[in-house]
Amino acid sequence: MAFPQYLKEYPNMHTSFPLHLSMNRLVSGYPAHRHDFLEFSFVIAGSGWEKVNGVRHPMTAGTFTFVLPYQVHEIFTDPGSTLVLFNCMFKMDLLMKSVKGSGRLA
To answer: Where is the AraC-type arabinose-binding/dimerisation domain (predicted)?
Structure first.
């Protein structure tokens, strides 16, 4: 088994709003990788599956996935299908700024 790719950056990562949203069309899936930021996906068409830390999860229209930092994950597209999904990557800091800045929760 090959080591998974380690993704270290994404577009907008070093800006004041470190979030990147894209729409992707996967004909052949996406190879195993991990990263130190958060990622979610929302499938809008096609079918396949995602393996997260060795566990297989189906992906069809309406599937929402949320991957935590350092989780090894890989996407597989079913034969003859194109998996179309929205993908969002962002730093944990994006969730924590309001707490840090205000001195209070919420």
So the answer is: 29-102
Token match 């004909």: residue?
Answer: 27
Provide the pLDDT for residue 1: 46
Question: What's the whole-model pTM score?
Answer: 0.78
| Homologous superfamily of 20-92 | Jelly Rolls (2.60.120.10)
Number of alpha carbons in the 13 Å side-chain half-sphere of residue 65: 26
* Domains in the chain: boundaries: 20-92
H/E/C letters for each residue in 2-66? CCCEEECCCCCCCCCCCEEEEEEEECCCEEEEEECCEEEEEEEECEEEEEECCEEEEEECCCEEE
**20-58 tens-digit pLDDT:** 899 999 999 999 888 888 999 999 999 999 999 889 999
51-96 confidence digits (pLDDT tens): 998 899 999 999 999 998 888 999 999 999 999 999 998 887 777 7
